Amino acid sequence: MADIPNDLSWTRAAPPEATGPGPWIEVAFGEGDDGDAPVYIRETSDPDNVVTTNRRKWDAFVLGVQAGEFDHFVEGVENPPHA
User: Where is the DUF397 domain (predicted)?
Assistant: First the structure.
């Protein structure tokens, strides 16, 4: 398991109107600005369990979310934009 830096700045992925502790997903970006720079992901209810990926994969995931590629996983989404 990779060492997780202690000084990461975590960003919570929650709607602005969200209240309470979640659980929410939090993301932190490690040092570096190339495609191999680390990206850390955790859930607020289990902050010691951190998943690590890299910036290239994170960017591909975000583009997929924006394109609606994962809408079929969300209950109540009936007409994904890519269908």
Answer: 10-65
pLDDT digit of tens for each residue in the chain (83 aa)? 468 999 999 999 888 888 877 889 999 999 998 999 999 999 999 999 999 999 999 999 999 999 999 988 887 766 655 54
Tell me the residue type at 30: G
Q: What is the largest CA-CA distance in the chain?
A: 42
Segment (H or E) for 63: helix 55-66
Q: For residue 15, is the peptide bond before it cis, meaning its omega torsion is within 30 degrees of 0?
A: no
pTM, full prediction: 0.81
